Amino acid sequence: xxxxxxxxxxxKRVEKGLSDTHMRETVRGAxxxxxxxxxxxxxxxxxxxxxxxxxxxxxxxxxxxxxYYLEQLSENVVKNxxxxxxxxxxxxxxxxxxxxxxxxxxxxxxxxxxxxxxEISMNEALEKQGCEVIESDLGEYILQIDDHDPPSHIxxxxxxxxxxxxxxxxxxxxxxxxxxxxSELTQFAREQLREEFLEADIGITGVxxxxxESGSISLVTNEGNARLATTIPKTQISVxxxxxxxxxxxxxxxxxxxxxxxxxxxxxxxxxTGLTGPREEGDLDGPEEFHLVIVDNGRSNILGTAFQSxxxxxxxxxxxxxxxxxxxxxGHSYGSIYPGPIGAVLSPLLxxxxxxxxxxxxxxxxxxxxxxxxVKIPLHEHLIEHRxxxxxxxxxxxxxxxxxxxxxxIAASSPGLFNMATKTAPLMFSPFSKEGTxxxxxxxxxxxxxxxxxxxxxxxxxxxxxxxxxxxxx
Amino acid sequence: xxxSLFITCLGDVFYxxxxxxxxxxxxxxxxxxxxxxxxxxxxxxxxxxGYHTDTxxxxxHMIQTFDHAEYVVAPSGSCAAMLKEYPHLFKExxxxxxxxxxxxxxxxxxxxxLYRVLGVKDTGAFLPKKATYHTSCHMTxxxxxxxxxxxxxxxxxxxxxxxxxxxxDCCGFGGTFAVKMTPISEQMVDxxxxxxEETEAEVLIGADSGCLMNIGGRIDRKDRPVEVMHIAxxxxxxxx
Lengths: 474, 240
Description:
The structure holds 2 protein chains of 2 kinds. Chain A is built from 23 helices and 13 strands.
């Protein structure tokens, strides 16, 4: 189960997350900053809702015609002198990359950030083969040297660590002896990484968007590491989820704009890289060989279902950055490399309910995620759809809940029964009530009253008052 | 104008006084109040838990109950939004879908109805207190009503309204979420209470009894000196 992180139960993970005050403080601060920056970036662009609508249309059109655009992309990559490999499973994708590494007798591989390679555990596969794999994104680098701590956020993987914790990691594992000042920490990582770039045999990147019309890939970073990873090593392998594609550069313009603004509140990130094929004669740099690995891993099963729009995701993390549940529990509590609202939607789709069955319930359905999404994925509706499948198709909810909901359905459609239930409520609750308040409720109400008071039902319901009043009037 | 009142479960059983204020306000603007006695629940607890077959039973009953109505008004953004969800439930039952759409079109949350249909800006209320307003999620995001409560509160004489920091954040209610994910819900409501206290408000106002029951329940448990009022109670406050 490559996407799953750790073996703790959901409750234990949440308990650990809630008790991690450093992490919660860091995440809270980051969400606050990102919220302000995104709001500014939206305002500055103007007509944000229109841009969202356009972006949704672009993504919907692309996914509706995915087979066409994938074929076009593939043809153009080959035309440019590159190689394309369609991998249905993580095993196939990893085997292909391992084969290239073996052929090239690669000892060192430098990577720029890629969630899909996390999804399929590519690093582990290559390490098993004896390759040294180095992450060059600063956040990923920090996590990698810290005993492969898993990412807790899809854009800022080390979001759960504060600068003092990073300083301590560098000191403990890399002999760092300077302060926790972010520019000093970054300078140190740059120096460490520069050597690795120069020695790497292969560069592996993710893909933010592939452009079908020209067979190009685009990479969005703030650190420039993707540029080094795609110019120095002789072989470049880029790995993409099969849905990360745009028809032309015109759509790329829109999508990159939305990605940068939604992810970090920037007009554009420091580096937007467009790469078309391997080095041509006369080029000063670039790889001699270029491979594009297109990964399915369950995505084609989502096409044509009620969840298709989940594939519109451009991995900006805007939903994660506004989620109040994420803020309190942190990314690791989700137990998947895809956390937050999009993770709660995607993880069960890609890996099944078994390991991720609690995730659709880890939301108050406040819809802040849906509102924040630049491509208008109705995330909270997808969570409800998951709950529906779990309750009605998989039948994995408790028997008590199933009967309670059946009873609810019957009562809510039988006014006599409903009337009786609400009329007798004060009597039913009277053993638990004191001065109009219930402090220790029975059954599921116990969860409520553990932290909150619950009002006792009033003796005279609204409907009784209304009826009596009408009588008095006449 | 005839207005059919959907009082909601919480409004009927736990907060009947809110309903009385709703009736008084609407009557003041010449509305004739119709209260269909057969009304039950909007079905949201079952819907949000994924039991859509059971939800449909409630939805069909509510559609029939309010079939005759000219306008349906509810003192809750969340329950009003749920009535507007019904058409999604009946994608494969065109006849019911059509009836669900008709209900959705004539359904309003109270402040929305006052401000947008009746054109009310000032209800003539008087409440000389420092207060803050909780913008509930379903009201603002699902119903899309971000303006009406503020427009009406602005004109309450004596009311000093303080902006609630991080007002866009959920209070942690979420229906069954509050009892299924209690430890997370607790942190969310605590954060909300902290922000309410930062405003130094004496009164917390809201347009959804669910949120108010949650935040108010936590305020009560922590014994904090903040009074919780439904917006209908505020809009019907008078000089004594």
